[in-house]
Amino acid sequence: NILFFQSDPLTSQTSSLKPPSDDPSGGESQPGTPLPLPGHSGLSIQEMVAMSPELDTYAITKKVKEVLTDNNLGQRLFGETILGLTQGSVSDLLARPKPWHKLSLKGREPFVRMQLWLQDPHSVEKLMDMKRLEKKAYMKRRLSSLSDGHSVDGALVGPDYIQGSQSPGQQHLKKPRVVLGPEEKEALKRAYQQKPYPSPKTIEELASQLNLKTSTVINWFHNYRSRIRRELFIEEIQAAGGVGPGSEGGSPSLRGSKSGEGDSCDGTESEGTMETRQGLGIGLEDHRGAFKDHDMEAESEAGGSNNSPAQTDCTTSGLGGPGSSCGQGGLGLFSLTEASSSSSASSTNIPASGPARNPRDNNLRKKKAANLNNIIHRLEKAASKEDPSEWEF
DNA sequence: TGAAAGTCAATATC
DNA sequence: GATATTGACTTTCA
């Protein structure tokens, strides 16, 4: 990536941008917040990322999507030219941007690039030019290959070569992509409901039962946890008002720093953060939708588990500080919602369904859920020292 | 050292 | 053909 930055199309591109204007927001960025420019300031993109004010990732991606759609520019071209990412990554990034405070420096980079791109008055023009050039080159290749009797595409990236980097002379048979069937996915989801962090033994068992490699099962759990988390971020942003985290109701300044981002849902801590959340007017129940595709169905099939996904995500990743993601990022709250509205509720006084209309009730309910969560966390921890397959609450 | 974050790239879907 | 999804892999971080 360093190499990419050094000969970075973005850098050269932004060198023609307007110099940064005064930021009236005093640091917290709105979609149009100008950034210092690498070309002018002599800053590398990494330095810019480090110095960047908090950006509204949701608003940025929204705007980028808009501009790309309006100008009929593809994700692939944009990704490769502006971000240095592949189409799939761009799609993912645009569809599910993580909030700024949840991003590492590396993760912030594409958003800084997007912001710079949006700032560039000639950004669209330039990309259009690229598109034309590409088309021209493609037509040229096509013509010459037609006259040679070869296909233009897939000369090196045909299905028989790894990552398109192997020439036919160095043939490596490609590993076929594993495609999990619906039954396998369902089984994995159910397993996840029971144990989001399965023991090696459980993984082995799952793998043999489903006739999969253990690495596939491990990867699936990694990916699933990570993607669920992201879904939750999106839900949070949308629930906070349909605009990005920088908008009202989701003030980024109230969020925790990266260091406090352990997905803790420790009861003690959750109580405090929930108060903050309530102050922001962010509803809890709305977030349940985040699980609808992944977990709720699986949960019901699993007969209800005390280990709801986010809950365990949250409880097993260490403790967060006062600004930890449980309160600010929402994981803790989601998990509390889960805890309070699923099977866990049956063993407590927490209502099993329906939002608490009264804010005081809601608060009480959340506190109870936080305590419950804490208990579960401790039990889980204790259980993990024994044979996890023998867990029973 | 294990989990999370970030990304690629094959494949599915629109 | 463009975009979305997802299994696999690498890097980062606590």
TrEMBL record:
Coiled coil: none annotated. This is One cut domain family member. GO terms for molecular function: DNA-binding transcription factor activity, RNA polymerase II-specific; RNA polymerase II transcription regulatory region sequence-specific DNA binding. It comes from Sphaeramia orbicularis (orbiculate cardinalfish). Residues 171-231 form the Homeobox domain. Residues 173-232 bind DNA. CDD domains: homeodomain. Keywords: Coiled coil, DNA-binding, Homeobox, Nucleus, Repeat, Transcription, Transcription regulation. It comes from the Eukaryota. The keyword tRNA-binding does not apply. Belongs to the CUT homeobox family.
